[in-house]
Amino acid sequence: METKDKVITGLVILIISVVYLNVITGRVIEVSKNRDCMDIDGKNYLIKGETQSRGNVETKQRVDACHTSTEAIEYYCDDNNLVKSEIINCASIGKTECQLGRCI
Fold first, then answer.
1. Cα(96)–Cα(102) distance, rounded to whole angstroms?
2. Running along the chain, 104 residues long, what does each successive block of 10 average in pLDDT?
3. CB neighbours of 48 closer than 8 A, spacing ≥ 6?
4. Residue-by-residue DSSP string for 86-104
5. What share of the chain is helix, strand, coil (3-state, %, to 5)?
């Protein structure tokens, strides 16, 4: 094994060891702890809304849309302040179609 390969192997072992020790001692940093999430329509299928989740590493922004002519994709914040989506059949809420991200 060349010196370069030994150094890389050693670094990999070191990183794995540090991560493992942090996991078993409970010192793992969770990215989602400092996450904010905002859903402007509050999971309302009749309104085209926007959902945004901002954390330590990324910002995720989604706008409600039509999946098909009769199904809407509703974005919302879950209990962990993460953006999730749900496909809703507009007929299930008494509407006939999806237009511009909302059931009508």
1. 11
2. 76 64 47 74 94 84 96 93 93 97 96
3. 41, 63, 64, 100, 101, 102
4. EEEEGGGGT---EETTEE-
5. 30, 35, 40
pLDDT number for residue 28 = 44
Phi, psi of 77 (to 5 degrees): -95, 130
Amino acid code (one letter) for 27 = R
CA-CA distance, 34 to 90, in Å (whole number)? 35
Encoded tokens for 43: 């999971």
Q: What separation in angstroms does the CA of 30 have from each of 16, 35, 51, 72, 81?
A: 17, 10, 22, 32, 13
**What is the Cα 45 distance to its own chain's centre?**
19
Write the single-letter amino acid at 4: K
